[in-house]
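The data layer described in this paper is built around a simple, fixed record for each protein. Because each token names a local backbone shape, the row as a whole describes the fold. We quote a single record here, exactly as it is kept in our systems:

***
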Amino acid sequence: MYKVVNGRKRIFYLDFIRALAIILVVLAHVTRAFFQNSPAGSFNMCFVSQFIDFGVIGVPLFLMISGALLLNKDYELGDFLKRRYSRVLVPFLFWAMIFPISKILFEGQVATVANFIKMYFDSNFWFVWMILGVYLFIPIINSFIKEYDMRGVEYFLLIWGGVMFLNTIGQYPFHQLELSYFAGYLGYFVLGYYLANKKFRLSDSKLLVISLLIFLTFTFINIDYTITMCILKNKLLYYKYETIVTVVQSAGLFMFIRYFALVSSNKPESIKNRIYLFFKDSFMFKIIFSISTFSYGIYLAHYNPLFFLKYEYKILFTFNPIIWLPIMMIAIIGSSWFILWIFDKIPGLRNINGAH
């Protein structure tokens, strides 16, 4: 479960989830590029659309990891905000400056001051603004959890899950019943803490199977909706973050990875253990750990190689996605990681690579 790196004990399965999360975020953006460049109604268009249903859980996984690590902790309010905001804002301010330059160079955007400022605050970086807002509320929910422990967590999640269900079926009761405080991304933080710490009555082996079935079932529900909408409307539609489908899908994957690590650690010489050790104790760990460490930086930086490929090699996004989607993924993540790795070697640039 744990891995000591540079004298620090890290929870391996959380590093694995974080690395997977950024890969899924990039997958969502690459999928959208392939979808937009495929002929309307074509097989490629609807085939590639299903990958968005895996990509959509990248952001929830990021938030769940943060909740698992940040909640039910002792910290001073000012110190918490200073540390979290500096780690998010310093890299963001740099990469948000590069973002408009890439759009001007590769997308032909007009190079005016007004347009530059508009692109600086582009919605592509919505995740950053969202996380900054949620951080303001973390100390409050942290105190609530410390006071009420798991009963308080379950109380919050019960209401949040109900609101996510109402969002899914298109019923918004907020005008009559004030539930907007339970309608946002904060719930993923609480859910991550809950799933990382809750001791269920079932055995780890049973929870491993159940979580896999949950993940596969709700992934199928999402894929079925996406492909149906592609066929009927030629649009890329899917159950988004604030729906019960994506909540349960994300929870299922988080639980599966956690319990796979637990079961594998307790059963030496099993096939599960060999698979687990392949990722934890081989060269794969260096790859996973490095991607996990640079995950936030990869999120900020990956738009630049994506824009470059969409502009200079747009035709590649019309090719067979079975072959070219993985190639594009490797190219975008690899080039982003390499830039951040170079920055990490230069003392003056380490603060902007988003490493943690």
Observations:
- The mean pLDDT is 90.
- DSSP finds 15 helices and two strands in the chain.
- The beta strands are 2-5, 8-11.
